[in-house]
Amino acid sequence: MDNDDSLDESQGSTRTVKGKGIIWGNAETSALIKIWGEAEIKYALSSLKRNYEIFEMISTELNKTGFNRSTEECRTKMKSLRKLYKQAVTQNNTSGSGLSKFIWFDEMAQIFRTDTSIHPLRTTESKSAGDTDK
């Protein structure tokens, strides 16, 4: 499990661990994911190349919930969560691997269920019994 997602939810302050950056508690990570999952946020992030303003909006919304995080901290945490989710999807789809224990998997699956960069569209070719190659 990723250390930055294993802290007690009641922890109100943040701390820095050498080499790990700023630690996020479960409650603030959950709040971030909830904001990220809002339709207008998902749409804006998927449609804009330069999305710094969207991360500012996310930071502002997170601050309204009582968690004081900068725009860059939100952006970094979201990139980390996306990477961990993508790794979990790969692990879950690899034969012989156990299922991922990523604690935010279900929440992230709701955000990325239509993202083809994580869940590529699968196509299959089929021929009906009457089709022949000429």
TrEMBL record:
Coiled coil: none annotated. InterPro entries: Myb_DNA-bind_4 (IPR044822). It comes from the Eukaryota. Residues 24-111 form the Myb/SANT-like DNA-binding domain. It holds the Pfam family Myb_DNA-bind_4. PANTHER family: HEAT SHOCK 70 KDA PROTEIN 14, MYB_SANT-LIKE DNA-BINDING DOMAIN-CONTAINING PROTEIN. This is Myb/SANT-like DNA-binding domain-containing protein. The lineage of its organism: Eukaryota, Metazoa, Chordata, Craniata, Vertebrata.
